[in-house]
Specification:
By secondary structure, the protein is mostly helical. It has two helices and no strands. The radius of gyration is 12 Å and the shape is flat. 6% of the residues are buried.
Length: 65
């Protein structure tokens, strides 16, 4: 789940993600990152925390294979 609102509170983001846990194997949250707003998404332009979150999301997918 990507955080679209840069002003969203962490507790709200976690609550939304928790709502998906019964529907999916895992729910990974991706923090808001200005590099994801416009244009082409480039991994190297993401903040380190966002890069780690996408890595965790990819790992969660791989665990299901």
């Amino acid at each position: 789940m990507t955080q679209a609102d840069p002003k969203a509170h962490s507790a709200d983001v976690q609550r939304v993600a928790a709502g998906y846990k019964d529907l999916a194997r895992d729910a990974i949250t991706i923090p808001f990152d200005p590099a994801m707003v416009d244009g082409i998404l480039r991994y190297g332009s993401l903040r380190p925390a966002t890069q780690r979150a996408w890595l965790a999301a990819g790992a969660a997918v791989a665990r299901g294979l």
